[in-house]
Amino acid sequence: MFQVTRKELFPGVWLRAIHTNKFKGFQMTVTLLAPLERENAGANALVPYVLRRGSAAHPDMESMSAALDQLYGGTVEPIVRKKGETQCISMMASFLDDTYALEGEAILEPAAKLLCELLLSPKVEQGAFDPDYVSSEKVNMANRIRSQINDKRSYAGCRLTQLMCEEEAYGVDRLGDLASVERITPSSLWERYQALLKDCAVEVYFCGSAQPERVENAFREALSGLPVNEERVVPDCDVRLTAAPEPRVVEEIMDVTQGKLAMGFRTGGITCWEEEYPALVMCNAVFGGTAMSKLFMNVREKMSLCYYASSSMEKLKGLIVVSSGIEFDKYQQAKDEILHQLDKTRKGEIEDWELEGARRIMVGAYQAALDDPFRLEDFWLGQTVAGLEAGPDEVAASFETVTREQVARAAQKLTLDTIYFLKGKEG
């Protein structure tokens, strides 16, 4: 049902083509893979939003919308993600598959041309980006950064990783910070854009019914204006093997009615590149990664210590983060019980239904990616950044043989690094 091919179009510019007849549309993405750096993150994140405003041939949103309407109402949107310590700067497009065109006309080639036109041929004013576009998108970006604090659950997790990794690239937000965004000018952003085009590894993704050879030819033509650089490489990700001897505890006070307790663990060097990785995924699922986990079933349901309690992992960086919402005066109880549930996991005190339930949920989650073109694209982008080629079905299969003992050994490597507690003024 899925044929996956990968080919280098130009030095450091790769195409991953997923050939399938499963979807009525096709999706394609061009992503620049930049090192996550504090001084450049804000400008890097702003670039695709300015590019989306218009190209030389379609200099405003109205003319660009008209061009998309001619291609059966396709969409092109900027998206900025963080995978490990790589900032992924993407232009993502979705169009009707050629199979469903009313007169059988080709959509792939003009769609690829339009997508790459936005990337390579922006509207220029006096040798730089249009000042009006830069000014308005700076305001939008600043609002995005400020709005992150409105979702206190997400904010607590972000603050934890910022504190936990403040001396590491991973501590940098995917959108940068307000101060750096405010300093951006049309000229400085143009210089950053030129550097991105010249230096970044480029990942092109396609998922649809077109044959890989046709997709390759379309993107070779559409990206022919990209600067040639033999030294484009995917950024590395630094992995710290151990936590500090004593966990760092940070408390912040805001006008909130519910406390947010976030706890960050190092995985002892287990990442997606290690043999123990499937056991770590299962460990996270048993501990807090699913609705059948120890955190959910015990800390939240049985003991009612938290409004929510879950854990998530970062496969490239080697982190597991626990996120919970609590009453202010339940801080110590909740923290102790979270650690108690981890200790039970370390000792292998895992019921059969817990282990098998976690296994089925994780296998199902990866298999479900095959039914969702957006999740599929995000999965393959993560694999690209990691330099891995296993597909969702192969990753899912790796969980089938994980034992209780392997889960326990993975849990034994977890060390608590940082605790972040967001409490109210009355807390």
Short description:
The protein is of the alpha+beta class and 427 residues long.
Could you spell the SSE succession in H and E letters?
EEEHHEEHEEHHHHEHEEHHEEHHHHHE
User: Which geometry do the CA atoms define?
Assistant: globular
In angstroms, what separates the terminal alpha carbons?
Answer: 55 Å
Mean pLDDT metric: 96
Largest sheet: 6 strands, mixed
Cross-sheet strand order for the largest sheet: 1-2-8-3-5-4
Q: Which regions are unreliable across 5 or more consecutive residues at pLDDT < 50?
A: none
Beta-strand residue fraction: 15-25%
The count of helical stretches stands at: 15
Cα radius of gyration in angstroms? 23 Å
How many strands appear in the DSSP assignment? 13
Helicity level: 40-55%
Backbone structural class: alpha+beta
